[in-house]
Amino acid sequence: MTAPLLQIHGLHKAYVLDGVTIQALRDIDLNVEPGEFVAIMGPSGSGKSTLMHILGCLDVPDTGSYQLNGQDITRMDGNQLAALRNREIGFVFQNFNLLPRTSALENVETPLIYAGIGKAERRQKARAALEHMALGERLYHLPNQLSGGQAQRVAIARALVTHPSLLLADEPTGNVDTATSAEIMALLDALNRQEGLTIVLITHEQEVAGHARRRLLLRDGRLELQT
Ligand SMILES: Nc1ncnc2c1ncn2[C@@H]1O[C@H](COP(=O)(O)OP(=O)(O)OP(=O)(O)O)[C@@H](O)[C@H]1O
Ligand SMILES: [Mg+2]
To answer: pTM for this structure?
Structure first.
């Protein structure tokens, strides 16, 4: 038996704004096994991004436990969390979050700089990651010279170039047309099925969630349904 990649128990998160407390996540229990593909759905304001930020170690819970690949994140300080994030997690966002005025190749190299990898090796790894995303002909294009689908594939190459154990995607198809959305989802399917990549993705769209092999519904900060 393998241990879960993500192990969350009794997790709560509240925000306080102008003296008003908002319970963004209430009593979340969630395990994700290596190689799973999980979709998190739910209405606007239900806590999806809050949960994603905690899963991605960009934020910490108020109470409850969270272990990522056997490491207890509630015992870590900011530097340890940043190192864990860089080692274990790749992020993909709705708006791609690519650095403007910076080539596709340099965008993909960025996480390798933080990982302390030298220039020649960075180049070679970034080039290979882009070629793997069928972007070998777009290495020197700037983000504004790419289509939406190409830009998201650069972002996926950047997320995966460090070989993370988990890919977190927050509305990865939110800014592209239907055909491009299908192309991105086919790519994520292939990464999951052929390479065993663990994926947790947030989406509003039933069709996108249909690609996942498990679907969770968040409502008012509670995980209500698992199908
Ligand atoms: N930094 C913050 N300060 C105060 N309240 C916040 C903060 N971030 C989120 N919230 C509140 O927490 C709740 C959950 O927000 P969250 O962003 O997780 O929702 P979401 O499900 O991602 O919504 P959407 O689908 O619109 O992106 C909302 O009521 C929101 O207003
Ligand atoms: Mg959100």
So the answer is: 0.94
Question: Using a 6 Å cutoff on CB, does residue 50 contact ligand 1?
Answer: yes
Which amino acid is present at 138?
R
202/55 Cα distance (integer angstroms): 12
Q: What domains are there in the chain, each with its CATH number?
A: 6-101+148-226 (3.40.50.300)
Q: What is the pLDDT of residues 62-73, one digit of tens each?
A: 999 999 999 999
Please tell me the number of the ligand nearest to residue 41's CA: 1
Low-confidence ranges of the chain (pLDDT < 70): 1, 226-227
- Measured CA to CA, the distance from residue 51 to residue 60 in angstroms comes to 10
**Which ligand ends up closest to the CA of 42?**
1
- What residues have their beta carbon closer than 5 A to ion ligand 2? 48-49
Q: Among the atoms of ligand 1, which is closest to the Cα of residue 25?
A: 14
